[in-house]
Automatic annotation (TrEMBL), chains A, B:
Pfam families: GH115_C (PF17829), Glyco_hydro_115 (PF15979)
Swiss-Prot/TrEMBL keywords: Hydrolase
UniProt organism field: Amphibacillus marinus
Lipid metabolism recorded as keyword: no
Domain Gylcosyl hydrolase 115 C-terminal: 786-962
Signal peptide feature range: none
One Gene Ontology biological process: carbohydrate metabolic process
Database matches in InterPro entries: GH115 (IPR031924), GH115_C (IPR041437), GH115_sf (IPR042301), Hex-like_dom2 (IPR029018)
Name of protein: Glycosyl hydrolase family 115
Length: 968, 968
């Protein structure tokens, strides 16, 4: 029995005349051969020697690789006829491959690896499958992810693997918003948007198991820049299906019309189907004639130039629909004439983007384009709200549409409320939550993600394409598997670069930075996002950031020079870029807050912010120069302090400086609150320390800060037996030492029924009295998971429900809430499944119970914190059910009245990545149960905050941290 | 004929045995002799030799000075009997003196100067009158104002001058709020609040023609600190009438009770007339016994300790009045017993301060203390609002009160809304306007001004006391004479120190800095007062400040070392202190505004602010060290950035720093407005230059500023023939050169009917279009002084009325408006006279007409800017009459409904030194006349701003600058 083996020896001794590893047929697809050459190069990276390829089977080595495409390979045909392989398992399928070891396919070859594609892309995926098996990363060339060296690779004699058809038909990305970054990069490295560059992009796409691309189109003309048609021809060679963006129909790119139009142009000089019908038709016709030969998904429909509406504001809905119907009819006819008379065989796509959506749905008086014959077999592309939240999704009826559906998703966006184009800020759990819902709702024909400049999006892009390729593995059923995916991704790319211990750190770094970016994207950060003091959210976030930055540096130190570029490009640069930027703004917030109290610490904080600003530039510079400028230009997007939706007039943080007071002065602040005093007898000098009202809190602190640069002493007089202070006196110089944190520890056993204590802090300008309130009991007489209001409010993490009730529908399907781990801005989230279901309370709606004890009877407000889902229906509503104790159930719309994607509420939601909705309850003193029913799809609950009416807890970005519950 | 002569020769040759200048009688008042000794020392300063004094008339020189007091001088008595002098002209009068040269009063003396006082103070004023005639400043010792050297002084043989009785009976000041400044000073220089120090204070008071003092009382006990009674004895010797503050009755100072009280004290341990009646009475009794021997104005009544209410909050008005009546009855009885059985001969004072005011007036149900027998012959002391604005004044009926009235005025205050204790911030025109009204209303028995630490208040204090001493000269009839006073004051103190040219500068410096302090006191300045850009009010104020600072430095350079201390103390330190502080905040405003636009100029401005902060400290240090620490401690009061009513937790300005953008960027701002752009095509990039809508404006400007530290060029394309630009291109480096002002000049002759032009400024990130709107006509077809609305609003200086109408009352008294020059925050003000009159419209009310042309018919708002006068009556109303065109007259209360001194509106008024009141008018397109009638006393109008309803001009502190009027 012969295994299939590749080893260094056989490669070393091979020559062009003998011992070739690859059998290359004359009639094979040239693109498949090109990919085989890439795989050969991969083998060189692994074994040190470039394998040979031959078309003469006598020159093959003892172990050979025979690859080809069904119906394009005499050799495969022959082996199949000899029953050595069974092509029936793949024939007629989409993009599948057979990967099989056979012994002695013919004389001279002892063992062969057969890689047979059901079609061109099947063969290509099969070839790249070999690279993957050899430990070669799909990012081997794109990101210089060098594989581990191997001595030998073997597959058992009976090894056979047949790939599945990809879950989604068209899977790809969109290079967009390509200036200044991608444009500078390709101009610098390749001289333009040409085929030399696209070769790399196509390879990336195919290795990631994608098959579909929207090319760069801001200033580029894909069909001209190759030069000539070289880009399109290369795509076709590789089997890359080309698309064009939603407003670029009939294989014509947007810039083309700008380029060709004019007074003397045969295409006229107006992008107007009414006034320049003939010119536009001619323009489309020639586009289809030119590029119809290639494999495309042809965009149909018509929008205005550069992502604008096509008709003027006075046109009615009916006018628009009629015009669009005419356009579609015309385009279909052109496609029949110039591409394929059988329209059903021509992949076409209409994007229901922006104003096109209403044209599709129509209104009660006007029939939309939905179900019209012009759209038969056309893929209807829906979209997210440009910020990663899906909009309307196909209803059950709509899912019958023959053409199927697509989804246009964003990892990058140039538009309102604030663009994000710099580096990756997408978070896998969100992509999972949203894209699985898309799939569940029947969007399975086209997934396209806008990746901007591509660079730094490789991690979420791989996930997006893997999800699209193998939904069974990563999709709806793989709940809470994004960490597993991330771990695998880390191993795939870094197993030979980092120890397992370091790879765990890298996992932390990737999940950590993307979680923080999920909480707030870099471009939308500013000094007013996180509260500088309340609930210590700034300090705690800074602590997380510093831990992650520490990891990033440790890994930077740990990695070999050979692998540095890959680490920088895939992790260090996007992670540190994100983290440093968040830190920049958090420190600015602290600086501003400190300055407003005259704290000299403000000046030290300002220096720290300046260090972050310098770091930001140094980081981009490093990224631009590493590996001889491989990434030159890709960091050029502005990313600090956006004041408009785009980068224009963006602003670096305004740092505040303080000037020392004239005499020794200290200010005391209660950490986590805005309370402060210098102890003046004439003004507020009693501060409240309320932390110990939470029975699980054992330490709390105040900070003493310098207001002058003169030596200033303080003294602490502790008048409370059950409290201890970390120190009782000290002195600050206001120069080096500008702050001191005093920590108080409670000894609840010594409280003896007391609930209040006090501590006096003597200061140079008076004395501060610290009133300390405390709760002794842990309320263990109450059931576990019962929240206790001890300090004016309760904050509940949605995952910490008291009880969970599943339901079933008439068909017996289980309806239930699941916890989505790591999803949401603090801990996690809960969401009901199946995601497509509109649940009926009392029948099939699952619910969760939250139990809590209030100190007063009366109207309370419950603030629900939710993932900012849009409505999946045209009605723009998103319901859940709420029931307090034995009261009636209220069905509430958690979206504001009249909510619309692109309105102000929506904008706030996508910037903060949260929707909040307040409901009122008439609650009792003592124990209460709040029941939350799932109703509409898209309801994803993260947190509940309960407080007496009009007594909202202090302002914060993340909301109050979870309060005490029994058993916490 | 022999002149009276003093010359160097006679002084030089005089010995103690012969040639004495001063004839000193044994029986003379010792205080008068002490003053004579001071005058002798003055003569030494002038002539270089100390004159001799003798009681032996044979030892007198040929020219002698004979001084004494009527009925206390045998010599004067004899000369009178000899008919050489006529004492009848002074005998029985208050504080007057005869100053007469006579030949050969007796053997051996050829010529004598007789200085005869009607009483002790008359003699003292007469002696100091000689010093003044010799050119010795009243501040000779207090402020080291050294006189010019003289060879000779002579008075003609027939010279005779008899002084007038002072206009106000008791004239003095209050040393208050004496920590940290005055207290540190006297502790450092004299070892406490003792007689050594008070000798200087008494001298200052008497030389300034005052006679009345409230001593320091925060931590001092005047009657104990002398040591012992030395302070009181010295005051009595000098004829200084001692008072005590409004809450310190019966010659007991506030700190005394604190010092003496206690469980075992005979005075008990409660400042409570109900619970500790006997103790309190005993306390008062012993005070009167101890100090009743001296000349006093005895405070009567009772308030709580340390300026608080005496009874608790539950006590009714009637309770309080009854208690106070009992107190007064008791005190009167104690005074009868221990001071003088004839109460009418004992000067007593009740302060109607704070809560005492309602006890005096009572209400409709409760008879107040007004007209009660307990107050017979008691001076009723009214007060300002602590910020220089009088409160209620005696009605005509009340003026009959036998005891007369007093006024407690403030140049310094420790209290809300914000204290002002650092340096002089009082403005003579305001003192004139307020104190003349006090006098007109019959307040003529006691004028007391709180001068805090005294230091730097010498200038307004001299004015206050001169006004009180000679109201005929400086009072109501001396309208607009404060400049004359200031010029005389400058000459009096600096004639021998500066050239006339430099004295003019010093005049500008004194009026300039006090005017700016009048607009805003130092302690109340902050970054939000002046608008950093609107109407260029910050830039223009900075320009004024820089001119004044320049003057201050020029004078500093010009003055001799000998006179430096006087110049620093009287002018340089308070002027530069004020100016530098105003500059500090104005630059901070510019810094903050620049930083918010990302201008790198912000960093340069921050450095300038820091220079001001350093200057502030250096200035105080200089003041503390000059002349061997003569002023040590007097600059210690905090004065920057008050956040409370007192200095606690005051804050230095928060400076904002910018960090350069990543690429060349410039921002254009339209000077005087908040408009700005970097020229982005996606955002606002058309700015409006509206300056030329005012027909008299010929130049306007924009500023181009660096946003990055990279070389950035701009280019200006002028598309308008009637505009010229100061430059058409340029470049900023963002390092040294961060701004460039581009000035546009209009050539109206070339407009040819055009009203709009445009200028394009090309910037690194786009282009800014400057839309230039202009008015060609000067509207000379309209009458002069007609305001023309060309830019949305009209701003009128009150002095620029179109017409003025006087009126007369039944008695034939002329009622008329006068312009108060230099009064008010911008140009001047108008006020109707007599100041005591309540005018009746249609009968005796004078009025002013304002004429203006509007561009639209419709509701307009007229915002009246007024000196923040309080109501002179209990009704808390202040009326004026308003009449538009032929419409009915409206009588409007310009104070907000329910206005009260100490409420929020009042606080805003005293901080900003303005009251604003908006009235609505239904105005016509075209010509309108607005008539303003005087109604209530205290109506002082500074400015009128007219604009269409709800279209208020941009925010500013000083209000929009005056707009165009025909003939401007």
């Amino acid at each position: 029995m012969m295994e299939f083996v590749i080893n260094q020896d056989m490669l070393k001794t091979a020559t062009t005349n003998s011992g070739a590893l690859f059998y290359q047929e004359l009639g094979a697809y040239s693109g498949v051969n090109k990919v085989a050459a890439k795989v050969m190069h991969d083998i060189k990276l692994v074994f040190g020697y470039l394998p040979q390829a031959t078309g003469d089977r006598t020159k093959l080595a003892k172990h050979a690789i025979i690859y080809g495409t069904v119906e394009h390979s005499p050799m495969l045909q022959k082996l199949a006829e000899q029953k050595r392989i069974d092509l029936a398992t793949i024939t007629g399928k989409r993009e599948v491959f057979l990967f099989q070891v056979i012994e002695q396919p013919f004389e001279g070859v002892e063992s062969a690896l057969i890689i047979a594609g059901s079609d061109k892309r099947g063969a290509i995926y099969g070839l790249f499958h070999l690279s993957e098996q050899l430990g070669v990363s799909p990012l081997v060339n794109w990101n210089s992810v060098k594989p581990a060296r191997k001595e030998v690779f073997s597959l058992g004699t009976n090894f056979i693997y047949t790939s599945k058809e990809p879950s989604v038909r068209y899977r790809g990305f969109f290079i967009n918003d390509e200036w200044p970054a991608f444009g500078s990069w390709t101009t610098h490295n390749f001289g333009g948007f040409n085929a030399e560059m696209y070769d790399h992009v196509f390879e990336l796409l195919l290795r990631l198991k994608g098959n579909y691309l929207w090319p760069a189109m801001w200033s580029a003309r894909f069909s001209d820049d190759g030069p000539g048609l070289a880009n399109a021809e290369l795509a076709d060679e590789y089997g890359v299906v080309m698309g064009a963006s939603h407003h670029e129909p009939c294989l014509r790119y947007g810039e083309e019309y700008k380029y060709l139009r004019g007074a003397d142009s045969k295409y006229g000089d107006a992008w107007n189907f009414i006034t320049n019908r003939d010119g536009i038709i001619k323009f489309w016709e020639n586009g289809l004639k030119r590029s119809g030969q290639f494999e495309n998904v042809i965009t149909v429909g018509m929008r205005g130039e550069q992502d604008t509406a096509i008709m003027d504001k006075e046109s009615t809905l009916a006018d628009n629909i009629a015009m669009l119907r005419d356009v579609l009819k015309t385009q279909n006819q052109l496609i029949r004439e110039h591409v394929n008379p059988n329209l059903a065989e021509v992949p076409r796509m209409l994007a229901l983007y922006k104003e096109v959506e209403p044209f599709f749905y129509g209104d009660k008086d006007t029939q939309g384009l939905i179900n019209s014959e012009e759209l038969e077999n056309v893929i209807l592309m829906l979209c997210d709200d440009n910020h990663g939240n899906l909009r309307t999704l196909p209803t059950e009826d709509m899912r019958d549409h023959q053409g199927g559906y697509g989804m246009y998703y964003h990892f990058d966006y140039h538009g309102g409320p604030v663009s994000y184009e710099w580096i990756n800020s997408s978070y896998l759990p969100k992509i999972w939550e949203q894209m699985t819902m898309a799939y569940d709702f029947g969007i399975r024909d086209l997934w396209l993600v806008n990746v901007g400049d591509i660079a730094t999006q490789e991690f979420p892009l791989a996930y997006f394409l893997d999800l699209a390729y193998d939904f069974d593995k990563w999709g709806t059923d793989a709940i809470n598997q994004t960490d597993l995916y991330t771990k695998q991704w880390v191993d795939q790319h870094f197993a030979n670069k980092f120890s397992e211990f370091d790879r765990d750190k890298l996992f932390d770094l990737l999940t950590g930075y993307t979680k923080l970016a999920h909480n707030r994207r870099p471009e939308t950060m500013n000094v007013n996002v996180y509260h500088p003091v309340n609930f210590k959210e700034t300090d705690q976030t800074l602590e997380q950031i510093d831990q992650l930055l520490q990891i990033a540096e440790e890994l930077y130190q740990a990695i070999d020079a050979e692998h540095l570029s890959a680490y920088v490009a895939l992790a260090y640069y996007p992670a540190v870029g994100n983290l440093n930027l968040q830190k920049l703004w958090l420190l600015t917030g602290k600086n501003n807050a400190a300055a407003k109290l005259g704290k000299l610490e403000a000046n030290q904080l300002a220096e720290q912010v300046q260090a972050c600003l310098r770091r930001d530039r140094a980081l981009v510079d490093q990224y631009h120069t590493i590996e001889n400028g491989k990434w030159y230009g890709l960091g050029l997007s502005e990313h600090i302090g956006f004041t408009h939706w785009n980068e224009d007039e963006n602003q670096n943080p305004v740092l505040m400086q303080t000037w020392p007071a004239n005499k020794p002065r200290l200010v005391v602040t209660v950490d986590g609150t805005e309370q402060h005093t210098e102890g003046s007898p004439w003004h507020k000098h009693t501060l409240l320390l309320s932390d110990f009202l939470q029975p699980d809190i054992e330490q709390a602190s105040v900070t003493i800060s310098s207001v002058s640069d003169q030596e200033a002493a303080y003294q602490i007089i502790n008048e409370t037996a059950w409290l201890t202070c970390s120190r009782l006196s000290g002195s600050l110089d206001g120069k080096e030492k500008t702050t001191e944190v005093i920590t108080f520890t409670i000894n609840r056993a010594a409280m003896n029924g007391e609930t209040e204590g006090s501590i006096v802090i003597k200061l140079p300008t008076g004395a501060c009295t610290l009133l300390v309130k405390a709760t002794q009991s842990k309320f263990t007489e109450l059931p576990e998971q019962t929240y206790i209001e001890t300090n004016g409010y309760i904050s509940i993490e949605a995952a910490h429900y008291f009880a969970k009730q599943n339901a079933t529908n008439a068909q017996g399907d289980l309806h239930q809430f699941h916890v989505l781990q790591g999803y949401g801005k603090t801990l996690s989230a809960v969401k009901a499944f199946p995601t497509t279901e509109h649940f009926t309370i009392g029948k099939d709606a699952p619910y969760l119970d939250y139990q809590f004890v209030l100190s007063e009877t009366g109207t309370h407000e419950v603030e629900l914190y939710m993932q900012p889902s849009n409505s999946v229906t045209n009605a723009n509503t998103l319901f859940c059910g709420v029931q307090l104790n034995d009261n009636d159930v209220s069905i509430i719309n958690v979206l504001p009245d009249g909510y619309q994607v692109n309105d102000h509420n929506w904008g706030q939601g996508v910037l903060s990545n949260i929707h909040k909705h307040v409901i009122k309850i008439q609650a009792d003193k003592g124990l209460n149960t709040l029941r939350i029913y799932a109703v509409s799809p898209g309801f994803v609950l993260e947190k509940l905050v309960i407080y007496p009416e009009a007594n909202k807890p202090a302002a914060s970005y993340l909301g109050p941290p979870e309060t005490y519950y029994v058993g916490k």
